[in-house]
Amino acid sequence: MKSKIFFICLMLAIGIGQVSAQKQTMNWKGQSYKAGDKVKITKRAGTFKPEDTGYSKEVDAGPGQVGKIIGGVNTDTDSEHSEKNTNFNVVEVQWKKQTWKEYNTGNEVELKSFKASIHLDYLEKVGK
Hints:
The protein is an alpha+beta fold. It has one domain (18-125). The protein has helices at residues 2-13, 16-23, 50-53, 79-82, and strands spanning 25-28, 31-34, 38-41, 47-48, 59-60, 66-73, 90-95, 98-101, 108-111, 114-119, 123-125.
């Protein structure tokens, strides 16, 4: 019984639901992306919310912000097809600690690393 509980806890801890997405290569507009790729935002992509960042206000998802792709986000809500969908156009990114601008005020704020999703239209790969 203990080993069964340990196994379930281990699967939850490693995010078993994201494993297949993390191993995927995502193709978008002639560019391939995969987990581990460093990316930067190329044009304003809206805002990241406090529940994403841990900061009290929204921050602009603006050009120049950098992070690393964690995996694809399956936006297909049809459960019958969602496991088969490999055409990810939204990715989960681990945004590194960096300076962001508050939405509406433009005030600069240093935020710790956080995870948030973004559409591939707003990203480009950088470096290695």
